[in-house]
Design brief:
5 helices; Four Helix Bundle (Hemerythrin (Met), subunit A); elongated; 2 strands
């Protein structure tokens, strides 16, 4: 008979065995839905005369988001990471990030896209969460990439993807700010 106190931690943990696949399924469904919404909005925006900016940095961002669940899975399974005492905090932060992402998409409505698309002459969105945050969607992604892995004790994934995301967002936000300033001029 095995002793649970001495059982190896990791993917065999009951909570992790149930929560990790659910988490990854939610993440995959969310990303697929976002790509569908973005594609629809992109077609409509381009038809209305929107201009795309910074297309070159989109592929690395997509790669970052595609590799994230893979890295999380590898760390949890191979390195046997498991939830710690702060898991409820990380879960709450991750859920808050989802709300912030949704609120950002809702405020932008048909102008939300994964691409940097600007409609010349259109005013900046200043309602919803944009009253308080300039880039709420990017804040949400930053929280998500930190809290999601930490929920499962995957601190290496949290640190690595948070660092790469910070670099990518530095490029992305500069591009977006230039594009928005040019549209307002």
């Amino acid at each position: 008979m095995s002793d649970p106190a001495h059982a190896p931690a990791g993917a065999g943990d009951g909570a992790t065995a149930v929560l990790l696949p659910a988490f990854l399924a939610i993440l995959a469904a969310q990303r697929a839905w976002e790509l569908i919404v973005s594609s629809r909005n992109t077609r409509r925006l381009l038809a209305r005369g929107a201009r795309e900016h910074g297309r070159g940095h989109l592929a690395p961002l997509i790669l970052l988001h595609a590799l994230f669940p893979c890295a999380l899975l590898v760390e949890v399974l191979a390195l046997r990471s498991h939830p710690g005492a702060l898991a409820p905090l990380w879960a709450a932060l991750w859920l808050a990030a989802q709300w912030l992402r949704w609120a950002s998409m809702r405020a932008l409505g048909g102008r939300w896209s994964i691409r940097v698309l600007v409609l010349p002459g259109e005013p900046l969105v200043r309602h919803g969460v944009y009253r308080w945050l300039r880039h709420p969607s990017y804040v949400a992604v930053g929280i998500e990439l930190l809290a999601g892995p930490l929920l499962f004790g995957a601190w290496r994934t949290a640190l690595a993807f948070s660092a790469v995301n910070a670099i990518a967002l530095r490029v992305r936000i500069r591009c977006e700010e230039r594009a928005l300033a040019g549209a307002a001029a």
